[in-house]
């Protein structure tokens, strides 16, 4: 079972759109796929039309008193399941802190699922916290949607520092450009310059496209309602690149 986190310290950069669309593509290729919506805002749950609620509460779940299996919901798509968010996830740092080995908690909870799924996407909340540390411990790789601006680059460097300072070098870091607007000079400049400095940068990128925004209207993965647009193609090539890179 491969575990991929879709993560950025910043919010509103396209994490949820990435998790939902890549999970959809993986499932379409026959991989048994799970999305865990870890953001209390519950956007991934919303896109899959599933009520953001953890039965019995997340406290019980995080303490290992609930079988994750009982919390997982099927989606409208074959091979694609969802662990919904819960509003109580906003206190997840506190809840984790009360458990044994708090930084390893999510990994421990996910382990029993390894026979049921080929791939898990963690749709992460923004910020860098105990939840993030859990995510870093649990994942094989982090997909990092990055808007090509100087401020995004700064938070990306903060993440790299965190990874090195916390002995997480085994973690694969996979940044890619997200919400790219080629009419913006800063975007084109950053996209020209950064590949020379960051070997880990993926080649695929996701354009700024209203097709993506409409996921909230249709409450579906983009590939269901606009399968032939530029944005759909971009997610397809991103997924192909990620899949090849992680050797899946
Ligand atoms: N490539 C894109 N083009 C246009 N809008 C996008 C794109 N990706 C995401 N959005 C929109 O931007 C907002 C934030 O995206 P989202 O995926 O929820 O980001 P995050 O999970 O990082 O907070 C949403 O309204 C979404 O529809
Ligand atoms: Mg999100």
Notes on the protein architecture:
- With 248 residues, the protein is of the alpha/beta class.
- It has a single domain (2-246), classed as Rossmann fold.
- It contains 13 helices and seven strands.
- It has helices at residues 15-28, 43-47, 58-62, 68-71, 92-97, 105-110, 130-138, 150-165, 185-193, 210-213, 215-218, 222-225, 230-246, and strands at 2-6, 33-37, 73-74, 80-83, 119-123, 141-146, 172-177.
- It has a seven-stranded mixed beta sheet with strand order 3-4-2-5-1-6-7, sandwiched between helices.
- A hairpin with a 5-residue loop joins strand 3 (73-74) and strand 4 (80-83).
- The longest helix has 17 residues, at 230-246.
- The chain is globular and about 50 Å long.
- The chain starts with a strand and ends with a helix.
- The structure holds adenosine-5'-diphosphate (ADP) and magnesium ion.
- Magnesium ion is lined by residues 15-16, 39, 43, 123.
Concise account of the structure shown:
The chain has 248 residues and is α/β, with parallel strands linked by helices. The protein contains 13 helices and seven strands.
Write the layout of secondary structure elements.
Blueprint lengths: L1 E5 L8 H14 L4 E5 L5 H5 L10 H5 L5 H4 L1 E2 L5 E4 L8 H6 L7 H6 L8 E5 L6 H9 L2 E6 L3 H16 L6 E6 L7 H9 L16 H4 L1 H4 L3 H4 L4 H17 L2
Parallel strand pairs: 1-5, 1-6, 2-4, 2-5, 6-7
Antiparallel strand pairs: 3-4
Bound molecules: adenosine-5'-diphosphate and magnesium ion (MG).
Adenosine-5'-diphosphate (ADP) binds next to helix 1, helix 10 and helix 11.
């Amino acid at each position: 079972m491969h575990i991929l986190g879709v993560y950025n310290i910043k919010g509103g950069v396209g994490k949820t759109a990435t998790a939902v669309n890549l999970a959809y593509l993986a499932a379409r290729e026959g991989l048994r796929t799970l999305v865990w919506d870890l953001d209390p805002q519950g956007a991934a749950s919303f896109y899959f039309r599933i009520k953001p609620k953890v039965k019995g509460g997340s406290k019980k779940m995080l303490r290992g008193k609930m079988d994750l299996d009982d919390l997982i919901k099927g989606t409208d798509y074959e091979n694609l399941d969802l662990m919904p968010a819960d509003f109580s996830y906003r206190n997840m740092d506190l809840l984790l802190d009360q458990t044994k080995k708090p930084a390893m908690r999510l990994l421990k909870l996910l382990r029993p699922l390894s026979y049921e799924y080929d791939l898990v996407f963690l749709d992460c909340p923004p910020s860098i916290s105990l939840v993030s540390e859990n995510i870093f411990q649990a994942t094989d790789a982090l997909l990092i949607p990055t808007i090509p601006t100087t401020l995004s680059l700064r938070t990306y460097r903060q993440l790299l520092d965190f990874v090195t300072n916390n002995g997480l070098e085994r973690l694969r870091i996979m940044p890619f450009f997200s919400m790219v607007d080629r009419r913006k000079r800063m975007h084109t400049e950053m996209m020209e310059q950064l590949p020379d400095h960051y070997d880990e940068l993926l080649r695929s990128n996701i354009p700024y496209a209203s097709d993506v925004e409409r996921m909230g209207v249709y409450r579906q993965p983009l590939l269901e309602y606009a399968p032939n647009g530029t944005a759909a193609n971009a997610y397809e090539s991103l997924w192909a690149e990620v899949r090849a890179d992680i050797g899946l």
